[in-house]
Every structure is written in C-alpha cells, then in structure tokens.
Amino acid sequence: RTVYVNGDYLPETEAKISIFDRAFLMADGVYEVTSVLGGKLIDFDGHLARLERSLNELDMKKPAAFDDLLEIHRELVRVNEIEDGLVYLQVTRGSDGDRDFVFPDPETTEPTLVLFTQSKPGLANSPQAGKGLKIISIDDLRWGRRDIKTVQLLYPSMGKMMAKKAGCDDAWMIEDGHVTEGTSNNAYIVKGNKIITRQLSNDILHGITRAAVLRFAREAQMEVEERPFTIDEAKAADEGFITSASAFVMPVVEIDGQTLGDGAPGPVARRLREIYLDESL
Ligand code: PDD
C-alpha cells in the first residue's frame, strides 16, 4: 500500500514520524475518514469543512490547501486501486523535537500530515445491514469537546471492547441519562414516523453523514426531531439506527438485551440507507 506523509508518497513500510510528534505523545491531532464507493469520494467537501473547523478550534495550522488535499485523496485511491473503502487523513501539531505541555511555536513547527487508504470490497453491501446491530449502553466518559474530531479514541475503543465482550456490536454512550452518540457514529431512534436524534452541540461529533441523512429525510417528508433522548426511550422505540462515513446508515435492533420492534431492521432505517447510497453513488 502506498501512503502519504508530509509531501511524499511512500510504501507504508518506509513512512516515518518523529517519536516526539505531539499526536504520539499527547493525542494532539485531528482526523477525518472519507468513504470511497465505486472509486468515488463520498461527501469530501463536508469532511474537509469539518477538518478546518477542528484545526481552528485547536489553533492548529492547515497543512495544505483544499485542492491539494483533494488531489492527495484522489491519487491514493488511484495508486492503491480502491474501489470501495476509506481514506484516512490525520493532521497533528507536529513537534519541535522534545516533550512539553506548552504548544511548540507555530512559526517554526510544521504540522504532520498523514493519509492512507483501507480497501473494503463490497462496503455498501455489508451483510450487517440486513441483520442490524446489537448495542449496549455505557457511561460517556469522554472529554467535553466531542465536536472536535481528535485522535483521543481510547475510551471509544474501550467501549467497543465492552460491547464485544457482551456479545454485541457497539455501544451507545450515556450522559445525564441521555444518549450522546455511538463509539464512532451518531445515534437515532424512530417513534412512529418520527426520527429523533440529539441536536448539534459540543457533546457530539457533527457527523457529515448525519447532515446528509437528515437532509434526505426532510426532503422525503419524514419528520425529524433534534433533541436528546433517554436510553429508556430508546429501548421502547420502534427502531434505531446509526450513521457514519464507514457504516452509512446501519439499523439497530437491540439495546441492552431489549429488542426494538420485531427485532428486524426497521423500514425507516432501511429506506434512509437506500436513499443515502442511491444519492452517493
Ligand atoms: N467516526 N460520532 C463519532 C464519535 C465518530 O467517531 C464518528 C465518525 C461519527 C460520524 O461522523 P461521520 O458521519 O462524519 O463519519 C459520529 C469515523 C468514521 C471513525 O472514527 O472511523
């Protein structure tokens, strides 16, 4: 696989980053994941807009212009022959060659820019979409700026492991009795014909797939309510689903052992998945 590091396209085994890089020492970095379907980047503009926002919120320098970043994405998709899969991009604050809590001088320290691809043949036809996900609920123990897409992913990773140990697929995180989001996705429930999902704030990541799916839902005259919902409300809902760049729209069929509806992926989630994939391809 060919990867991109600070201006160079290299075999992955030759890529090098300083051990003093602040992402390595302090998780001082942000990232984006853009899906690829049929060789085409999905929602690239949205991911780039959110990257800029993450960088601004952390006073980090933009590593390259929009057009250059687009070109790097396209080149990696081309050389790695990605039909279906992902492009991962990470920007870090770099390093001035030592460990210090104080940020290095931005005048003399260049950000680190890394991109690589992951090939996932048949990404849009995942058999999981036909079965739906089993979810557990866990406390949300993350920091308070979840709107910034940082690489501090230890707790979400632990949440995923807790789900796996419980024989489930993923975890929804709870704060003050209300669901914030999934470990790596936004969370939704459906009651009757109404789609309910938490409103945007610092409490959740502003999902790019979320924005597209809510737009398609409204265009299809579906009712959308943006507000926090409790885990009890979720367990009593007709349906549930998640959205993310890698899962698109994925139905949820069970929460903490409680079956939603008849235990099969619901009609609203199935329809939104179909619309999202149709519009993206
Ligand atoms: N995760 N919430 C969290 C905490 C996320 O990590 C993600 C994305 C989302 C969905 O955002 P989007 O629709 O823009 O992908 C919501 C990516 C896919 C990941 O970490 O791999």
Automatic annotation (TrEMBL):
Keywords (A to Z) from UniProt: Amino-acid biosynthesis, Branched-chain amino acid biosynthesis, Pyridoxal phosphate
Requisite cofactors: pyridoxal 5'-phosphate
Statement: the UniProt record of this protein carries the keyword Transferase: no
Domain of life: Bacteria
One Pfam family from the record: Aminotran_4
Reactions that this protein is recorded to catalyse: L-valine + 2-oxoglutarate = 3-methyl-2-oxobutanoate + L-glutamate; L-leucine + 2-oxoglutarate = 4-methyl-2-oxopentanoate + L-glutamate; L-isoleucine + 2-oxoglutarate = (S)-3-methyl-2-oxopentanoate + L-glutamate
GO molecular function: branched-chain-amino-acid transaminase activity
EC number of this enzyme: 2.6.1.42
Family to which the UniProt record says this protein belongs: Belongs to the class-IV pyridoxal-phosphate-dependent aminotransferase family.
Protein task: Acts on leucine, isoleucine and valine.
Name of the protein in question: Probable branched-chain-amino-acid aminotransferase
Organism: Roseovarius litoreus
